[in-house]
Amino acid sequence: MTPPPNGERAIDPFEAFNLFTYDSVLILDVSTTPGPLLPGSTRCDERRPLLESAAAARSWILDDMPPDDAKVALLLCEDSDAPRAEIVSRWLIEEHCRRVVRVSRTTMTAGYPFLFVPSLHGLPPYPNEIVPGELYLGSAATANEAALDDLSISHIVSIVERNLLPIAGRTHKLCQIPDTDEAELLPVLKEALPFIASALQDGGRVLVHCERGASRSVSVVCAHLMLTDGVGLHDALAHVKAQRPCAQPNGGFLRQLQGRDVQELLRSFANEARTAQGKA
């Protein structure tokens, strides 16, 4: 089999969810059977030659509802139609796009049925899914009831400077800190990381947010990944950025995450977790 061209690959449903909710991109359904459509997408007519149909579908989207970034494409297809998706992917990469990703329509509709609505206006702001089915990251706007209900989020960590009231029906942890280089991250991590770990251990889903979802909340999520996955800051931040490109802790937080105090705290939490597992 010919290897896929650079910029083309299959992705997991949570990655497709993040791409769809974060960016405005070209979306085509290349399945041969009718099915629900994501808002802003269209189907390639299976009665016409494949690339002719794909070209017509692309032109229709660009004329009627052009995405912000038409150089990135998301293809949906049934598993049996994967060869069709690969052909369209190659054509798009060769002629129109710098990046093309494809995902199973069946798994998308099963995991994210709430996305398949007639209009984008019917969707709330969603956070990005960092650990599938467990950990979410976003701005303050994503801590809305509709998004929390759709994603079955049970716990919220708010990393902000202002006071915030908890949302009814969710367990809430408020960690108040400004987004400045001089702010002390360690006290926040001492509160937030055990809260996240306990929620996940109990089968909950956790949203970590700050105001923009770029610095404070990203720092906490990176620390969680460093703790649970045993990775360094570089790898943790790269993972987060892959799902939320605006992620960028301020310089002070980056220095602290690599500093001795935070590293000692993470080692302490890791040792406590191992001890608890040994007693279980």
TrEMBL record:
<dbReference type="GO" id="GO:0005737">
    <property type="term" value="C:cytoplasm"/>
</dbReference>
<feature type="domain" description="Tyrosine-protein phosphatase">
    <location>
        <begin position="126"/>
        <end position="266"/>
    </location>
</feature>
<dbReference type="GO" id="GO:0043409">
    <property type="term" value="P:negative regulation of MAPK cascade"/>
</dbReference>
<dbReference type="InterPro" id="IPR000387">
    <property type="entry name" value="Tyr_Pase_dom"/>
</dbReference>
<dbReference type="InterPro" id="IPR000340">
    <property type="entry name" value="Dual-sp_phosphatase_cat-dom"/>
</dbReference>
<protein>
    <recommendedName>
        <fullName>protein-tyrosine-phosphatase</fullName>
        <ecNumber>3.1.3.48</ecNumber>
    </recommendedName>
</protein>
<dbReference type="InterPro" id="IPR029021">
    <property type="entry name" value="Prot-tyrosine_phosphatase-like"/>
</dbReference>
<comment type="similarity">
    <text>Belongs to the protein-tyrosine phosphatase family. Non-receptor class dual specificity subfamily.</text>
</comment>
<keyword id="KW-0378">Hydrolase</keyword>
<dbReference type="InterPro" id="IPR020422">
    <property type="entry name" value="TYR_PHOSPHATASE_DUAL_dom"/>
</dbReference>
<dbReference type="Pfam" id="PF00782">
    <property type="entry name" value="DSPc"/>
</dbReference>
<keyword id="KW-0904">Protein phosphatase</keyword>
<feature type="domain" description="Tyrosine specific protein phosphatases">
    <location>
        <begin position="183"/>
        <end position="245"/>
    </location>
</feature>
<dbReference type="GO" id="GO:0004725">
    <property type="term" value="F:protein tyrosine phosphatase activity"/>
</dbReference>
